Amino acid sequence: MNGTQLNGATLSALLGNGDTAQLRVDDVAALADGNNDVLAYAVSISTDAGWQPLCGYESDGSVRQALAVAGSWNYQTGAWSESTDEFTFACRHASIAKCVELGYKSSIGFGDHQHACVRMLRADYCGDGVSHTVNGTPINLYDAVGVQLDSESWPVDAEWTPDGALCLYHHRGGSQPSCYAEKYSATCGSFAGGALLIDEYDGQ
């Protein structure tokens, strides 16, 4: 089953802590705002208190949806694994779903950009699953394929690949990444070395 065929289906899921759970797809609808090729799912999880929304609720009280994204992510390392029989329900407003909605869709050939984007949004500089992001920090991200364009002239944060930062110039705050000395470069901020994404942050 896929797409709208999942509506009403009950699925067995592996959670981040290694436990399994039953999920139920309650509704399927296409996104709007230029992403109408992406389906969003209202998903419930079976708990001791009955069926509850997997992703919680939006501020208006509606059920927060999830996107079905190919493959799976390791919750400890942040690494993505390809699979023909597994997919990830990624809650909207979190990093994986955000990257899909930014235009990095594996279905149209941007899988590697998607995985680099997830590392970038999480500020997982070292590619070890450790996030250094600081809530509320504005960032500007762009690529060399025209999906996201450079719209600011802020200081460069880092160049990104699916394995983490290729190099970094600044970091967004919080604790200094353990790989900072190894990856620091005063010339960071070019696609010449094979980076897929570059991000900048408003350091003011």
Explain what this protein looks like in three dimensions:
- There is one protein chain.
- Helix content is 11%, strand content 31%.
- By secondary structure, it is mainly β.
- The protein has two domains: 92 residues, no CATH class; 103 residues, no CATH class.
- The longest helix is centred in the middle third of the chain and has 11 residues.
- The protein is globular.
Radius of gyration: 18 Å
H/E topology pattern: EEEEEEEEHHEEEHE
Distance between the termini: 49 Å
Strand content: 25-35%
- DSSP, total strands: 12
Q: Which regions are unreliable across 5 or more consecutive residues at pLDDT < 50?
A: none
What is the compact description of this entry?
The protein has 2 domains: 1-92, no CATH class; 102-204, no CATH class.
Outline the secondary-structure elements:
Elements: E1 10-14, E2 20-30, E3 39-47, E4 50-53, E5 66-70, E6 72-73, E7 80-81, E8 87-91, H1 95-101, H2 111-121, E9 139-143, E10 156-161, E11 164-168, H3 180-183, E12 197-201
Antiparallel strand pairs: 1-2, 2-3, 3-4, 3-5, 5-8, 6-7, 9-12, 10-11, 10-12
Helix pairs in contact: 1-2
Label this structure with key terms.
204 residues, six-stranded antiparallel β-sheet, four-stranded antiparallel β-sheet, 2 domains, mainly beta
